[in-house]
Amino acid sequence: MDGVHDLGGIAGFGAVEYDADESSFAEDWERRVFRLQIGSGPLRENLPAFRHSIERMVPAHYLSSPYFEHWLTGAATRAVEAGLTTREELEQRAGGCFPLSQPDRGVLPDDLTSRTEPRYAVGDEVRVRNWHPPGHTRAPRYVQGRRGTIARVLGVANVDDIQAHGGGLVSDPFYSVRFTSHELWGEGGGDGEVVHVDLFERYLQDANDH
């Protein structure tokens, strides 16, 4: 989905602050949220659905909250959607408003066929499909519609887009695709600079197809 979470290639957010001595958990509640997600079987079983529950956060909430609050919001949203608790119960325990993510608008694709034989080989020129699904996808917005080169054939994996929306485990070949920075950002790119992105085959088409 095109959402506030998909920030790759977007300028204006400033430098990434990094502290080599920073603790993994800034506060104790973050540690508890981590344990909740890792230890809760029904929520842990579908990682793509969990990722999408975070992607569905209200944009202002997403941008103004720390990393593990994203985890908390996603886990709570999934728990409510699974019928394990209710918003009212969460707000009673929290003593006030407990924000949840927006409803899931994702739909399954028509083609749910598993594929195991790669269509492309190293060196093939491809173009990423330029489409904007309302649900979860692992194709960043900044590579959609862009032309790249197959750098590696990585094997076969389950398609997150399908698993996230209840379609089960559907496999697809996936690749490391190399893009020049000029292809992605025009004059803003640098000579000799490239970006590698791992992409499922169903995201790709022949380079000359539009």
UniProtKB/TrEMBL annotation:
Query: Could you read off the lineage of the organism from its UniProt record?
Result: Bacteria, Bacillati, Actinomycetota, Actinomycetes, Mycobacteriales
Check the record and name the NCBIfam families matching this protein: nitrile_beta
Gene Ontology molecular-function annotations: nitrile hydratase activity; transition metal ion binding
The superkingdom listed in its UniProt entry is Bacteria
EC number(s) per UniProt?
Answer: 4.2.1.84
Return the similarity comment: Belongs to the nitrile hydratase subunit beta family.
- Provide the reaction this enzyme catalyses: an aliphatic primary amide = an aliphatic nitrile + H2O
List the protein's name: Nitrile hydratase subunit beta
The protein's matches in Pfam families, at most eight in alphabetical order, are given as:
NHase_beta_C, NHase_beta_N
Q: Which residues form the Nitrile hydratase beta subunit domain?
A: 111-205
InterPro entries linked to this entry: CN_hydtase_beta-like_N, CN_hydtase_beta_C, CN_hydtase_beta_dom_C, Elect_transpt_acc-like_dom_sf, Nitrile_hydratase_bsu
